[in-house]
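Slack export, channel: ligand-projects

TW: morning all. Re-posting the request from yesterday since it got buried. We need the structure predicted with the small molecule present, not the apo form. The ligand is zinc ion; the SMILES is in the block with the sequence. No rush, but it would help planning for next week.
GE: picking it up
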Amino acid sequence: MPPATSFRMSQVRQSDTEPELIVKKVLRELDLRFQSHVGSLPGKPDMVIPDYRTAIRVHGCFWHGHACRRGRLPATNRSYWREKVKRNQLRDARTEAQLRKLGWRVLTIWECRAKALTTQMLLRRLNKLKQSRIALISSRLRLPEAR
Ligand SMILES: [Zn+2]
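GE: finished. pasting the full token output, ligand included:
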């Protein structure tokens, strides 16, 4: 592996936990009860808010193919990385569908956006999600109301 790529990968892996910490901090500020890395759900969501029946996925821009600067593919072995990222994206879409089918709402927070995340922003997104089609499916399942 070229040094530039391995450097980038180590950077990606390292910063991957940082956005999660930020999101958790915001969840705590909102006094929302959450669980981390829930292995019993498809895709093992990074966080789950049981009261909102919402799964939160904090996505690293590189590995999950975000259309931002961090999501840019390395100059070398492009097709290799493109395939790898595409596989991740397919898996992401599959697990999201599975989660929805189980009545969970799915919120994806990109690594590059996590830093600027505020309690108000997260609340707005959670509320918006509540009004979405997924929420309709959820309410048909008579899920407990959020606090
Ligand atoms: Zn990004």
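GE: first-pass observations. The radius of gyration is 16 Å. The first helix runs from residue 3 to 29.
TW: perfect, thank you
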